[in-house]
Write a structure and sequence with these properties.
12 strands, Nuclear Transport Factor 2, Chain: A, single chain, endopeptidase fold (from Nostoc punctiforme)
Length: about 290
């Protein structure tokens, strides 16, 4: 049996929603548990994979890296939607048999700590510039590129904020501040502001920007609409690690989001199923294009 066939056999068992005896601890099983705790039912799960690299470690031992794309059919009473996630995994084979499989995790932040959080938004000259935010265009962009990378932009190892910024710009958010990376919000000629690509910086830009792209902070996730933004401080230590964009709402009126860095589509907004989440997690909810 080939290595690809071994992986296929393994994941056929993991993705079977009727399998109650599965003892393997992985993110797919945990996501099923989280959905069950919310009262959701997952009647079907499907997956596809592609090997992206292999390395022989010893005579009989081989390490394989592969991309796994999993689609969950989620049911909430009479409401159905698909949730999708694209992750890199690493598997170890010994004499052709799978002996270990694990998720390849990505650092949750690449924030330069020395950036002054409020200066990014407030040190730029400003006028009363406004824009009409096209939420549909922003959402369409986030749906088109959630599992891929637009070649017009640089791809970052930690790409969540870059992805959200691209979607906001597709919705008409105007750039400003070029060429000072510590001012405004912009991307040009393979260069960018901190607020364009760094989670901590975008969070403070949205709350402090006096013109153009700015966020109106609200108290709860259910106040958000498709096209709005959620910021995450996973450890609750004041350093904002992650950003997502709302693309739809579930039957209970709660946001479902798209994101890069462990690329996700229609993921429940709270991210409790993420390896980065902790009980100390803090959120910021921003409405976009609201004066």
């Amino acid at each position: 049996m080939t290595l690809a066939n071994e992986l296929t056999k393994y994941w056929e068992i993991q993705l079977d929603p009727t399998n109650k005896d599965n003892k393997v601890d992985n993110w797919v099983q945990y996501k099923k548990q989280i959905h069950s705790q919310r009262g959701n039912h997952i009647p079907h799960i499907s997956g596809t994979g592609a090997i992206i690299g292999r390395l022989r470690l010893e005579r009989h031992e081989v390490r394989v890296n592969y991309l796994l794309r999993v689609t969950f059919l989620v049911r909430q009473a009479h409401f159905f939607y698909h949730e999708e996630q694209l992750c890199e995994h690493q598997a170890i084979f010994y004499k052709g048999k799978l002996i270990e499989d694990k998720l390849v995790t990505t650092p949750i932040s690449n924030e330069p700590k020395q950036i002054e959080q409020r200066s990014i938004a407030k040190n730029d000259r400003f006028s009363n510039q406004r824009f009409n935010y096209d939420r549909r265009a922003a959402v369409n962009y986030a749906e088109r590129w959630w599992d891929d990378y637009n070649p017009a932009y640089k791809q970052f190892d930690v790409d969540c904020t870059n992805f959200v910024s691209q979607a906001l710009h597709a919705g008409g958010a105007p750039m400003r501040g070029y060429p000072d990376r510590a001012k405004g919000w912009w991307y040009r000629d393979n260069n960018w502001s901190y607020s364009w690509a760094v989670a901590h910086s975008l969070r403070w830009y949205l709350s402090g920007s006096p013109q153009g792209l700015k966020g109106k902070e609200v108290d709860s996730a259910n106040q958000l609409l498709p096209g709005d933004v959620i910021c995450y401080d996973f450890e609750g230590d004041g350093k904002w690690n992650h950003n997502t964009i709302v693309v739809m709402k579930d039957q209970e009126g709660m946001p479902l989001v798209n994101a890069h860095t462990n690329n996700s589509r229609h993921r429940y907004w709270s991210y409790e199923d993420s390896y980065a989440w902790t009980p100390e997690c803090q959120y910021k909810f921003f409405q976009i294009g609201v004066n």
